[in-house]
Amino acid sequence: MPMAPIIVRATWDDEAEVLVETSKDIEGLAIEAPTIEALEAKVVAALSDPIELNGIDSDLKQIPVHIMAEHSLLVPNPSHR
Predict the structure, then answer these.
(1) Residues sharing a CB contact under 8 Å with residue 29, sequence separation 6 or more, in sequence order
(2) Whole-model pTM?
(3) How far apart are CA 70 and CA 81, in angstroms?
(4) How far apart are CA 64 and CA 12, in angstroms?
(5) Handedness of CA 33, 66, 29, 22 (dihedral sign)
(6) Which residues contact residue 2 at a Cβ distance below 8 angstroms, ignoring those fewer than 6 apart?
């Protein structure tokens, strides 16, 4: 049976200059990384214990994880020179 992916949200911390992970699906993760690629590697390495501790049960060989990140920015308005 298909399993809903574990949702991991990545939020940029301006002060620390890192992405910070949060997840409502997995308690106990505390991961920071300077890039989304580095965060992904750390999430993969850190998930096995919390998956067991949070009682996530699956017959799947691999458990789906969805890492969500947003990036906002401001662009110059050409009518305000």
Answers:
(1) 8, 21, 22, 23, 43, 46, 47, 50
(2) 0.74
(3) 28
(4) 23
(5) positive
(6) none
Q: How far apart are CA 6 and CA 51, in angstroms?
A: 10
Q: Which tokens go with 77? A: 């308005």
| Domains of the chain, CATH where assigned | 11-69 (3.30.2390.10)
In the numeric block, the tokens 């990036």 are attached to: 71
The model's pLDDT over 1-23, given as tens digits with 9 standing for 90+, comes to 567 888 999 999 999 999 999 98
- Distance between alpha carbon 47 and the CA centroid of its chain, in Å? 11
Provide DSSP, the chain.
Answer: ---PPEEEEEEEETTTTEEEEE-SSSTT---EESSHHHHHHHHHHHSHHHHHHTT-----SS--EEEEE--------TT--
